[in-house]
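Problem 3 from the worked examples.
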Amino acid sequence: MNIDHIEAFLYVVHYKSIHKAANALFLSQPTVTARIKSLERELNVELFYRDARSVILSEKGKDFLPFATQIVQTFQHGKKQLQETHASNEVCIGTNGVTAQYFLAYALPKWKERFPNMRFQIITGSTAIILEKLQSHQIDFAFIQYVHKEGVCNELLLNNAVKLVMHRDHPFTLETNIKAKELAKQKMVFFECGAFDWNYVHKMFEVEGVSANIEVRTDHLEVAKAFIRTKEYVSFLPHLCVKTELESGEFVEVDVKHLLDINQHIFLTYLKKDTLESAFWDNILSTANQFESIQKLH
């Protein structure tokens, strides 16, 4: 059903004349007549009684009138809402918590400098949840791990190695070539973050026939850090999360690269780029490059 045909019907009802309706719509009289006839064919009813001078609403036309009015009003309200949303330049970003807390806290102020009229909404969650929201058009783009889905585009954005860290006063002896069996004896707080594939950690212990001594599981980064500060726990954490603590010497890294080397990546994931201006997409990538350059300097 064509919204223009329904609108023509309402104009004819209002003006009680096809000629006057055509003038109000800035259309020719034959065009308005054709639209009314098309609507009548689609509805399989006669909407007007016609004579030489006027058109009179039929009984079926009277029945259809409130529905036609509601359809056009709903369409106009929806159009207005889209225009207001577009005018606000609000960008909705989906991401995991780590990327939000560390990269976006750095990037958003820079994006605002370049695009001062933009506003941002940040939604955090696991890769699966964020992907679902992206595919249902609830978010504009995402910062998540690589996903292989038809219609979904991925561009490499950030590298983020995972480190095994502990407090500097932890009794565990820092030695080279630590064995998985020795590590399995240490109390571990397991930070369950949707940004990374933690199966690699489990497999590291499985190949040695041992299980990690995971006493605490948490999805909150600061909780994981708090347990490390008790000087009793070790934990695998993304480097971005513990960069400050490692630089200050509060935390130290346990070298387990000979056992596993988790160099995970964060991707810029989207459906279509034409939802936002090209300059903004370029700015996302340039900001990520600046951010990584700063990390390497430290």
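Problem 4, a separate protein:
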Amino acid sequence: MTVAPHHATNGSSFAIDSDLFKALLRRHAAAVVVVTAAGDPPAGFTATSFTSVSLDPPLVSFCLADTASAARAVSQAATVAVHVLHSDQEATARTFATSGIDRFAAHGAWTPGPDGVPLLDGVLARIVCRVFRRVRAGDHTIVLATPIAGEMHGDDTAQPLVYHDGGYTRLHRD
């Protein structure tokens, strides 16, 4: 195992530089989701920060950079939708990660849902949520949300799109 150098600050805590921090996080594999919110125009972005928070009450979370083009719409939204992407939806992930385009026109396959939130077609799973709380954390906002509706892809063998080591990949089952 290679151990990267770090330096002590204040004699007791440790800090790492941004390059090492990014390299360490690249070792973590995560499912890829697209989060959408209503707006004029609607907003959506690709994320790997989605996770369950609590079963009782049901809560999920995702993070969004304060500089993201979707930040304003998400900061004003009462309802959002989280779309877990299918392993063959890398193009969708790339579309919603691209700046300066009309992501919904480029994607095409969506319909308005509760409170006008865009619902993407053909995803592995979709969770419509009410925003519960927003927490500022560094240069991001953590959004905590309560699931109010959900749908799953009918094929139990379908697999999620995964992001690892700077690229999209698929799970391999034996």
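Solution to problem 4. The longest strand covers residues 125-137. The first helix runs from residue 18 to 26.
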